[in-house]
Amino acid sequence: MNDHIPIKTTKTTFDLLETLVKEGEASLPELASHLEKPTSTVHDHLISLQKLGYVVKEEKTYRVSTRLLDMGESARRRMDVFPPAKREVDELATQTGEHASLAIEENGRTVLLYISKGADALDLGVSEGFRMPMPTNAPGKAILAHLPEDRIDSILNEHGLPSITEKTVTDRTALREQLAEIRERGYAADRGERVEGVRAVAVPILPEGRVQGALTISGPANRMEGKRFEAELPNLLLQSANVVEVQYTLGE
């Protein structure tokens, strides 16, 4: 069996779960239509997921259960970077009033591991666990810039350079130039590359020189400009990242 080809039944199960996560809830006909599978096939998968405790049926619709939340939280707490970074993300949100987050790289994508919202934070329409193509966002580029060259190539070969907005970088040479600049100045910037009108600054977390994630502050473009965007927020993030790196190394 080819290791690169997922077993069809397993793929259908996870496609079903991902659809329910995205839609919130859906009926059997809606799920069958979305997955382009026979109703009987989807029903069999739903019954199995119900019995295993991963799906809940409410009248005529289905939704994912909180068991997935428990699994995700367990995985998050096992990551050494999470405890010290969580404290700093909360502090960043309080200090800036903006949307602060911790992101990691997982299977070649940016994953938001933790989010904290300040008093004036913009609703970015994302939640913990949200996944994004790495070249389209500040934390993804901050992490990419500090990965080995062969890992960068592997990620780009698998996921490409998708165009999300007119400002998203879609050329490998241009991306490589950006990554070199990020390594030199110490932080990554997103000027509407994922969402028009939204900007972000991110710095890598580099205990002992190995990237473990990135801290990010995001906000509307009218508040993320000039000295604040180019100096104040990057410096604040660099200080927080340094605290996380020290605590990570000490195991605190």
Describe the model.
The chain is 48% helix and 20% strand. With 252 residues, the chain is an alpha+beta fold. Strands 6-5-4-9-8-7 form a six-stranded antiparallel beta sheet, with helices on both faces. A three-stranded antiparallel beta sheet has the order 1-3-2. The radius of gyration is 20 Å and the shape is globular.
Write the SSE topology.
Layout (H helix, E strand, L loop, with lengths): L7 H16 L2 E2 H8 L3 H14 L2 E4 L2 E4 L2 H11 L4 H15 L2 E8 L2 E9 L13 E3 L4 H7 L4 H11 L12 H14 L2 E4 L6 E8 L7 E8 L5 H25 L2
Antiparallel strand pairs: 1-3, 2-3, 4-5, 4-9, 5-6, 7-8, 8-9
Helix pairs in contact: 2-3, 5-9
* Molecular shape: globular
Helix and strand string, N-terminal first?
Answer: HEHHEEHHEEEHHHEEEH
Distance between the termini: 44 Å
Q: How many H/I helices?
A: 9
Low-confidence residue ranges? none
Give the CATH class of the largest domain.
Answer: Alpha Beta
CATH-assigned fold name of the largest domain: Beta-Lactamase
Question: Based on DSSP secondary structure assignment, what is the total number of beta strands?
Answer: 9
- Cα radius of gyration in angstroms: 20 Å
Range of helix content: 40-55%
Strand content: 15-25%
Reported CATH architecture of the largest domain: 2-Layer Sandwich
Q: Which oligomeric state applies? A: single chain
- The CATH superfamily title of the largest domain: GAF domain
Q: Please, how many domains?
A: 2
Structural class: alpha+beta
Mean pLDDT: 93
- Trace the largest sheet across and list its strands: 6-5-4-9-8-7
Major sheet summary line: 6 strands, antiparallel
